[in-house]
Each structure stands twice: as C-alpha cells, then as structure tokens.
C-alpha cells in the first residue's frame, strides 16, 4: 500500500472497520455492516461511499434491492481489507480503537519505522496541517505508540519521532511502499 492511498483510506473514520468486517465475512449489506461497526448512519454512509469512490468496494451487480444494495470488495479492496483486518484485530480496546479511527494515526505510524523529523513527516503527508500533525503526534505519544526523542548530535537539537510498541506492529502490518 502506498502513502497516498493510505491517507485517502483513513480520511473517513469507519473505513478501516468496514474493510476489516468485509474481510471477516460480514455480509456486504448496509444493515449488518452498520450494526457491526456501531457507527452513526451518516458517518457509516460517508465511509461506505468513500470506499466505493476509492475503488475498494463496488456494488454487487444483480444482488440486493436498489435501495438496499449489497457491496463487495474489488481486487484492490481485498488487499486493503486484509491489512485493515490485521490492524483492527491488534486494537481490541475501545480507547485505542477510537485513536485508530482518527484520520492521521495510521499514516503517521506507517511513516515512522525509522526516527523521523516533524518536517519530514509533514512533507510525506503533503495535505496535513502543522496543527493536525502536532496534535496527532501528541496523541500517539500519550498512547505510547510513538516515542519522541531529542537528537542532540546536530548543532541545533531537534525532536524525532519513531513508532514503538503497538505502533511498531501497525507499521509492520501496513508495509508501506515509499516512492
């Protein structure tokens, strides 16, 4: 998975959960998926439509009522759903799952296999604001998924960020391809 797809995928709160549920065999109709996620109808519908627009889900032709369609994973969706299922399975705690649903959590963890500077993360995430990156890093550090170190070998000290603990496991599962 590349960083651009990962950023787009995680920009909707319930996208990873929906993909994980489909991977686990939950029927691709809205009612079973909605019940399994526990999301609000509005947020769920936005996430579902977002997955269709990314080409990870498609309407199952010939199945379902036009007002209650059935969805299935596309070829790209099968790969993304496998990754999503592994990530979601690692986070059984509700507080951690809430952090995982935030837009920038998984992309930041995917980029921090090695120690990274704030500016490097910002340039790789392109559309992130300084405030969103700073806030996300603080939340990940508080959850102990990212470690902040001060690099003092340079003339001017600077902080670096690296995935640790569960953050490191999520990084491994994502298997980001940069370039």
Verbal overview:
The structure is a single chain. By secondary structure, the protein is of the alpha+beta class. The chain contains 10 helices and 4 strands, in the order ααααββαααααββα. The protein has helices at about 5-10, 15-25, 30-35, 40-55, 75-90, 95-100, 105-110, 120-125, 130-140, 165-175; strands at about 55-65, 70-75, 145-150, 160-165. The strands form 2 sheets. A two-stranded antiparallel ribbon has the order 1-2. A hairpin with a 6-residue loop joins strand 3 (about 145-150) and strand 4. The radius of gyration is 17 Å and the shape is elongated. The mean pLDDT is about 90.
What's this, in brief?
By secondary structure, the protein is α+β, with helices and mostly antiparallel strands.
